[in-house]
Queue: 2 jobs
Job 1
Amino acid sequence: MSAPGLLLIVVAFGFLYFILVRPQKRRQLESQRLMSSLAVGDEVVTAGGVYGRITELADDAVLVEIAPQVTVKVARRAIGAVIPPAGPEDEDDAPADETDDSPAVDNGG
């Protein structure tokens, strides 16, 4: 096999590694971090799209309260995401003070 052919094969394998293998490993690590960070009281959404709050943790399962007095047992790996708690709104998003007495500018439009 010639040197350019061998180089092409090495470049192809390197390309496949960065396109296929590396992102998959990253997703697996993120999933493992999510599963290990679950705690009672976390708001979660399951892979099936059910929203709820974790009430109890077990080795392979999680009890999720989806409505008052309605708890379902869900496999840990079926937890799709943890919903971050709603914090105070940014001050930038607050409505502008309407007591501004400055004159309106007409741009001649």
Job 2
Amino acid sequence: MNRETAHLKIIRWDWLFFTAAMVALILFLALHENSNTPKGMVTFNLKPVVRQIEPVLCVVQHCPDFQNVFWLVIINVAGNIAVFMPFGFGLTAAFQHFNAKRFFPLMVAATGFLFSLGIEIAQLQVPGRITDIDDLILNTLGTIAGMALWYALALLGAGKEANH
């Protein structure tokens, strides 16, 4: 087997293509203009959790707009995590050969962080989009959760194979 053939076997191309599709989808969702953002609204936030405090208090205290605010909180928090989970899963699956390397999980998390940072910086130029530190944190957590899910499923698969 020549060196090029060995290199092709190192990368799971199906999962790499899946990850590339996830990147395209995330970029499409994150970089389109949002005309629903109210005029004068702060579109740049570097204070973690600050924008979430008022809606969360509203949900806890059952404010008059409870249902709308509740779903906004769920969509913002769970949505930012969920959107990046397939990215973390696919990236981990694509480079399975490197998973045994000591710093691989850190590299996946850093890739998710840098990808999210790039999106947040790009959103500074998109009308109506909000660049928010919370999104960066939640997207990175989503990448880590996707990677953790891959490892959990890999462990379950290894356990099933050992029992047969």
